[in-house]
Amino acid sequence: MRARERHAAVGLATLLTTAGALHFAVPRCFDAIVPGWVPGSPRSWTLVSGAVELGVAAAVAVPRTRRLGGLAAAGLFAAVFPANVQMAIDWRHRSPRERAIAYGRLPLQVPLVLWALRVRRDAL
């Protein structure tokens, strides 16, 4: 694997590890964006999604499981999109800076999915 491809995989694993750890470190932030139509408690979804992010990070980090991890990361980024939509709806009356953060997360999912699929494609 070339250095560029390895760097992309390590970067993706790092992003997922950080996001997953944050679900446990500051769960209230994530609880708040769980859509109300999702069954169960927001905290349960926060903890489950954090654990999934950590598991996907591990799969991306290990060369033997990187192809599967890249695909799982792409699916995960798509699956959390409703939470980003919920955040944008909930934050529509906040300050311009906070609205920019919330709205900026929406199109960010596209390059994240593409990054994950590139990691999958480049894995040996």
Summarize, please.
The chain crosses the membrane at residues 45-62, 69-89. This protein has helices at 3-25, 27-31, 42-61, 66-79, 81-90, 96-122.
Protein described:
The chain has 124 residues and is an all-alpha fold. The protein has one domain (3-122). It has helices at 3-25, 27-31, 42-61, 66-79, 81-90, 96-122. The protein is globular, with a radius of gyration of 15 Å. The protein starts with a helix and ends with a helix. The model has no long low-confidence stretch (mean pLDDT 94).
Please write out the topology.
Elements: H1 3-25, H2 27-31, H3 42-61, H4 66-79, H5 81-90, H6 96-122
Protein name: DoxX-like protein
Keywords: Membrane, Transmembrane, Transmembrane helix
Organism: Pseudonocardia xinjiangensis
Number of strands: 0
Distance between the termini: 7 Å
The portion of residues forming beta strands comes to under 5%
On the 0 to 100 scale, the average pLDDT is: 94
Shape: globular
Counting DSSP H or I runs of 4 or more residues, the number of helices is 6
Helix and strand element order:
HHHHHH
User: pLDDT below 50 for ≥5 consecutive residues: which ranges?
Assistant: none
Instruction: Give the helix proportion (percent range).
Output: over 70%
Number of domains: 1
Q: Could you tell me the radius of gyration in angstroms?
A: 15 Å
Sketch the major β-sheet. Answer: none
Class by helix and strand content?
mainly alpha
